[in-house]
Design a protein that fits this description.
The protein is α+β, with helices and mostly antiparallel strands and 683 residues long. It has 25 helices and 22 strands. It has six domains: 59 residues, Helix Hairpins, CATH 1.10.287.610; 233 residues, DNA ligase/mRNA capping enzyme (D-amino Acid Aminotransferase, Chain A, domain 1), CATH 3.30.470; 78 residues, Nucleic acid-binding proteins (OB fold (Dihydrolipoamide Acetyltransferase, E2P)); 75 residues, DNA polymerase, domain 1, CATH 1.10.150.20; 71 residues, 5' to 3' exonuclease, C-terminal subdomain (DNA polymerase, domain 1, Orthogonal Bundle), CATH 1.10.150; 68 residues, BRCT domain (Rossmann fold, 3-Layer(aba) Sandwich), CATH 3.40.50. Strand 21, helix 24 and strand 22 form a beta-alpha-beta unit. The protein is globular and about 95 Å long.
């Protein structure tokens, strides 16, 4: 008996360790077959010694009998709702409110995914799963422990937070004591899109109707009385919060997630911490663009104050905590047929597959194309021409394919074969080392040149008026433009411009005026326009503010670049590599030779007239676009805010100014015209 008990204990610890490696760390150390052998051996021993079976054994995940009904369970700490907004302006107003409640304090903000599933509270007593409870009305939920136990992400017994990797020592203990006597964890039960595809294929084989979406399946599964039904659904769990926090060691949210991982719980992924609310909001906009990478559904992003002591001082209203908010976005789905897959070449040479769809109505518009992003995604979703697909549009992001409805697949449609040569120039394609993108390495590829010139001329870059897509195609096709600098030499080739389609004298003059004006957009816009990998408008602005000129930027080391706020090692290396490559250095020299400004806006003619001042712009302006006046404010030392508060120094008001003007008048904030704004710059 002692020998059997020792082996049973060792097997349970080893299986728990491998569960953690697979579900929490996504780094399995053994094959599925080896894992199954461990489970089978444990089952054999427990069958021989039933008196040694315990509720937290891995073999007890699925109960033998259905429960008679769901019992109510009162939460140890109420599960409050989350304040949410669909508006970026409202989101920023929330940040301002929190800053006022913690005056003068540095507030770190965490951004995490809002998983679209079913909220659950897990209660561990002495390290063992005691209860799994739905949110219910926030005070009382339903006890669904019998179903929660079937979810393999949910450890039946917690590991020590000082747990070490999986090599099980000779004495049979894999883990150390140290878990809190009571731990209440909040999370979201969900299903992946991949598992919904498999489930619907199974439904088809059984002659049963398919499920519409992952959330409906999850909500129905966790309320099943028979846990065997829930076990078949392959549900998952991400943990993101705590109820009763008395046993926690963490002092911040980031530390809390690490502590959860130490206990063997799957913490919510893609979480990042930022030193300011503005930086967190900026990150939200980038994170939304990565929705296609996820195999599970989200319906928003959550911004949380990182420090627990600040959360405690912020407190809660009767409905929701003041220290977090959900930034949600409308999501729309439609079902249509994938007619074909083709590829296009981007400004950095990335070969992007595009889905041609049977036109379908989505969010008030007719959609006939969707992005497939990269070859790996096509393979992961097994997307084939002829398939019925679910297309999603979230926020302002272009539509993407969520999943293939394989239960509706007819026959064996051909797999899409990704090209090995550039469809534009014929150069052999190469895959990023350690990445997912396949690229054309030919920097002179006509398709790349066109896309780079389009982006360079765009509103967020050099803002060259009159340089539209069709004209870019003509300029590159006629070899009038093969690089950025060639744009500024077009004045010398007016005769050829006049020979282009739809280019009369007035059009040529307007184009040349726009190109000339584009010489003085400042370093930030120039850096954004150069199509450096990982550098968008925000990163470009940060670099321009930090270094001030292209010469200072080129003189910086990778270490100096990465020490810049918001610039990590990957971005730093990318910027350094571009500026010191033959293509990058020649591009800079060429642009310098034609007189393009390479200093930051503040260095290029700016003053300090607005130093320390906060301005809000509202209404229709006569002399400036919104981007232009905001750039002027920053160039002269000021700060642009999106909402009016007592801390606002000036409101620049144009025609048809609305609620912001009324708010300024109510608070006694000075309202100025464009002319008064210009006089301010000269003081």
């Amino acid at each position: 008996m002692p020998k059997a008990a020792s082996e049973i204990a060792r097997l349970r610890e080893e299986i728990g360790c491998h569960d953690r490696k697979y579900y929490v760390e996504a780094a399995p150390e053994i094959s599925d077959t080896e894992y199954d052998r461990l489970i089978e051996r444990l089952k054999e021993l427990e069958a021989e010694h039933p008196e040694l079976v315990t509720p937290d054994s891995p073999t007890q995940r699925i109960g033998d009998r259905p429960v008679e009904g769901l019992e109510p369970f009162e939460h140890l700490v109420p599960m409050l709702s989350i304040e949410n907004t669909y508006s970026l302006d409202e989101l920023k107003k929330y940040g301002d409110r929190v800053a006022k409640l913690l005056p003068g304090e540095q507030i770190e903000w965490v951004v995490e995914l809002k998983v679209d599933g079913v909220a659950v509270s897990l209660i561990y007593e002495d390290g063992r799963l005691a209860h799994g409870v739905t949110r219910g009305n926030g005070r009382v939920g339903d006890d669904i422990t019998h179903n929660v136990r079937t979810i393999k992400d949910v450890p039946l017994r917690l590991l020590s937070s000082r747990h070490t990797p999986c090599a099980v020592p000779a004495h049979g203990v894999c883990g150390l004591p140290g878990v809190p006597p009571l731990l209440e964890v909040r999370g979201e039960i969900y299903m992946t899109n991949s598992d919904l595809v498999l489930l619907n294929q199974s439904q088809q084989r059984k002659g049963e109707p398919p499920f519409a979406n992952t959330r409906n399946v999850t909500a129905g599964s966790v309320r099943q009385l028979d846990p065997r039904v829930c076990a078949e659904r392959r549900l998952r769990l991400f943990c993101h919060g705590a109820g009763d926090t008395r046993g926690l060691k963490a002092m911040t949210h980031i530390e809390f997630l690490d502590e959860l991982r130490g206990y063997g719980l799957a913490a919510t992924p893609y979480v990042e911490c930022f030193p300011s609310f503005d930086a967190a909001v900026e990150h939200c906009e980038h994170l939304i663009e990565r929705l296609h990478e996820l195999d599970f559904e989200i319906d928003g992003l959550v911004l949380k104050v990182n420090r627990f002591d600040q959360r405690e001082r912020l407190g809660s209203t009767s409905k929701s905590p003041r220290w977090l908010i959900a930034y949600k976005f409308e999501k729309y789905e439609a079902v249509t047929r994938l007619l074909d897959i083709r590829v296009q070449v981007g400004k950095t040479g990335a070969i992007t597959p595009v889905a041609d769809l049977e036109p379908v109505e989505l969010a008030g518009t007719t959609v006939s194309r969707a992005s497939l992003h990269n070859a790996d995604e096509i393979e992961r979703k097994d997307t084939r021409p002829g398939d019925v697909v679910v297309v999603e549009k979230a926020g302002k992001i272009i539509p993407h394919i969520v999943r293939v409805e394989k239960h509706l697949r007819k026959g064996s449609p051909r797999k899409f074969v990704f090209p090995t040569e550039c469809p534009e120039c014929g150069r052999k394609l190469v895959k990023d080392e350690g990445g997912v993108y396949i690229r054309c390495p030919n920097l002179q590829c006509p398709a790349q040149v066109k896309e780079r010139i389009r982006y360079f001329a765009g509103r967020n870059a050099m803002d060259i008026e009159g340089l539209g897509d069709k004209l870019v195609d003509q300029l590159v096709g006629e070899k009038l433009v093969q690089g950025y600098g060639d744009l500024y030499r077009l004045e010398q080739r007016q005769d050829r411009l006049l020979g282009l389609e739809r280019m009369g004298r007035k059009s040529v003059d307007n184009l040349l005026d726009g190109i000339e004006a584009g010489k003085n957009r400042g370093l930030a816009r120039l850096l954004n326009g150069l199509s450096i990998r990982h550098v968008g408008a925000r990163v470009a602005a940060v670099l321009a503010e930090r270094f001030g000129s292209i010469d200072a930027l080129m003189a910086a080391t990778v270490e100096q670049l990465s020490e810049t706020n918001e610039i990590g090692p990957i971005i730093a290396q990318s910027v350094y590599d571009f500026l010191h490559s033959k293509f990058g250095s020649e591009t800079i020299d060429d642009l310098r030779s034609v007189g393009v400004s390479m200093e930051s806006s503040r260095s290029a003619g700016g003053t300090r007239a607005l130093e320390g001042k906060t301005l809000v712009v509202t209404g229709m302006l006569a002399k400036y676009t919104r981007d232009e006046i905001q750039e002027l404010i920053v160039r002269h030392g000021g700060r642009v805010a999106s909402s009016v508060s007592k801390n606002t120094d000036y409101v620049v008001a144009g025609e048809k100014a609305g609620s912001k003007l009324a708010k300024a008048e109510q608070l006694g904030v000075k309202v100025i015209s464009e002319e008064e704004f210009e006089r301010l710059l000269k003081t």
